[in-house]
Design brief:
about 250 residues; single chain
């Protein structure tokens, strides 16, 4: 399962590298965080390429890479299983929804330097999700069109501690599985069933929290931090930044 995902990511990365540098300025502005717009001629220009519908790989002037996902608010109150789901899947349990193929986000994260780990395991013993730590920030426009940038964690509240989420997410990577009705056909990426960015632990998660967070209704820890979340249907750019350790130079 994993080699297939890595092969997909390598193909996508090759296409992205070939495309970076030859895209138009107009293409780079689509879905671009407002803080990056208008910086040309100052400290360089961020370059961006589409990795799939509503998914972009962006290379900043300092060569750091991150992934941008165009989404919108779908829920502002109640218990949460997810932070972001795929459109028309689990909007009743997620703050954001996006019309995306989760495999493209997976490939874009690898292109940005992230290394996938493993989703959570519950048997024989609990083992938390692992992988490169991913910092998630959000950008959207206020009523006066002023751009606002916040941490994704500020939209999620720990109901027991009465405080915002403290943990960052990790790149768990989900799974590819064969279709039992068509074993020789294309494999199915489980995160596409909805579990793109999770706050409850799922074996199918693309991104998950590396802490114990039950998914049963009675035991859920996290709720929407309503007062921080803009109105439903607000367009949001989800910015996924891999926290990659700098490589040590050989002496």
């Amino acid at each position: 399962m994993r080699p297939s995902l890595c092969y997909l990511a390598c193909l996508t990365l090759t296409a992205a590298v070939q495309t970076l540098g030859c895209e138009s300025a107009a293409e780079r502005e689509v879905g671009k965080p407002k803080s990056q717009a208008g910086e040309r001629g100052q400290a360089g220009e961020a370059k961006k390429v589409a990795m799939g519908k509503n998914v972009y790989l962006e290379v900043l002037p300092d060569k750091k890479r991150r992934v941008l996902v165009n989404a919108e608010v779908c829920l502002r109150e109640g218990q949460l299983e997810l932070f972001l789901c795929r459109r028309q899947t689990k909007e009743h349990e997620a703050i954001l929804t996006a019309d995306v193929d989760a495999r493209k986000i997976h490939a874009a994260l690898i292109a940005a330097g992230a290394v996938e780990g493993s989703p959570v395991r519950f048997v024989p013993n609990y083992r938390p999700a692992s992988g490169t730590k991913i910092e998630i920030t959000l950008q959207y426009e206020a009523k006066d069109k002023k751009p606002i940038t916040v941490s994704a964690k500020s939209w999620i509240k720990d109901a027991k501690k009465k405080a915002i989420l403290e943990s960052d997410w990790v790149f768990a990577g989900s799974h590819l599985v064969a279709n039992p009705l068509d074993p020789d056909g294309p494999k199915h990426y489980l995160a596409n069933d909805g579990d793109v960015i999770c706050v409850s632990n799922f074996e199918t998660a693309l991104l998950d929290l590396p802490i114990k967070s039950p998914k049963d209704d009675a035991d859920r820890i996290f709720v929407a931090n309503t007062e921080r979340i803009p109105p439903v249907e607000t367009k949001v750019v989800v910015i996924l930044t891999p926290i990659v350790e700098a490589k040590k130079e050989k002496k």
